[in-house]
Amino acid sequence: MAAVIEVAGVRKTYGRTVAVDEASFAVLEGEIFGLIGPNGAGKTTTMECIEGLRKPDRGVIKVLGLDPIRNVYQLQERVGVQLQQAQLQKRIKVWEAVDLWASLYKKKSADAERLLEQLGLADKRNAWFMNLSGGQKQRLFIALALINDPEVVFLDELTTGLDPQARHAIWDLVRGIRERGKTVFLTTHLMEEAERLCDRVAIMEHGRIIDIDTPARLVARHSPERTVILATEDSGAAARFQTIPGVEEVACVGNQFTIRGRGDDLVTAVIHCLSESRIRVTDFRTVLPSLEDVFLKLTGRSIRE
Amino acid sequence: MMLRGLTKLTWIEIKIFMREPLGAIGTIVIPVLVFLVLGRVANFKSAPSTLVVSGYSGSGLPALVALLIAISAVLSLVTIISIYREGGILKRLRATPLRPQTILTAQVLVKLILTAATVALMLLAGKRYFPPGVHVPWFSFTLALLITTCSILSIGFLIASIVPTARFAQPIGAIVLYPMLGLCGLFVPLSYLSPPLQAAARALPLTYAVNLLEGIWRGDPWSAHLGDLAALTVAFILCTALSAKVFRWE
Hints:
The structure holds two protein chains of two kinds. By secondary structure, chain A is α/β, with parallel strands linked by helices.
């Protein structure tokens, strides 16, 4: 697949603070690419350099073959942008905002009424921006980002501050954007969001890109640990669990055992041991590592800190 | 193409402004009321003949109210720009094919249109207070006010460029603009001021604005005020160039 966004050796400093440090990556056509990391990692600065809103100190950026600074207006015609924490005029009506945005692009715009319909804003078209809920505001910003039928859509911390229900609805919308063949570049500090939504993610911390891959491969590469938690009354179980290949630690509290090891085969090996030794269990579950664990491992700190 | 964006943005901004609780009342109704009330007072023959009041009956009152309209437009511009900056609205508008200058020009156009509308309304409503037989130069006076407004709007832009937050925008704008009003020759003729104050007054664009507005009201030809026009233009160019350098979008 062709690269839609190419970033090579980008650096951006504010005074003595290095916001982005030698960032390099490529976003491929038709994928949802996530830039993940804690607040202050440099995600937004990176994104705004790509959008042409900021000029990097050095490095090369190409979006759809265009230079985001030199060809900024050509670029704006072909991309859609949602900014973190942006507002609109308090008393602008939903339809006015959409109508204004539609008039700004040369290209014939997407069907505004249908867009509002799809985003669940049709009955809010006469509402003032200030009277919309957080989720409705974000959906309006998505509408504005899609109004010019863009080839690439930028979404910066799209679901921050939304309740889980609104968040899930927005995720469905973003998947819908990909289904229309568009490329999505998003930032998030929510690992669950990245894991559920992104085809590939780049992990960023202190302005540096630490690793890039699919969420599953990142987890497999950096967090091979597997944990099985089970409950049994069998008094001889602990000794047998110790002999399972790949097991590194068996902890026991009451009748609950926590078996830690590594490798994809661990769970199968535990099940095999249970059936072979006819150990009767009353509870059985596995704990798989997530991007959250990958992040902890790569940076030595939790993303929530 | 960009013209389309400009007209649409300007029209939407006007609508939004009229939806503000104090939008229409503050900028249009109050100045007109001030003009009418003062016009009445000034028309009483028994009113004490102070400098101020005698000024009202001539060209002073229209000039004063016109300047108040212009200053309130400027203060409103400063506030709106800083609120838009703080709320990320300017940045959001910039992340479109809109040119930065189009975004700001729309704000200026809104203020000019509202200023013209207000002064027209004021002249219309105040008609009966003008002494009979006086020819009111509607068009020239409005034009003079628009030129004045452009010039002090550029001061407004300079203020908007440097105020730290929206909370400070209105007070800082008022602190800069209202003292100018005291020195500009409306209340006290320049010749009554001490030399240093006179020098200060001559450095203020408002002084030239007053001269221009009063002159045009009296029926002077434009050619009599080339100096005032030049001073207002210089202030406009200077402030616009400066704010182009220091303007912050976020």
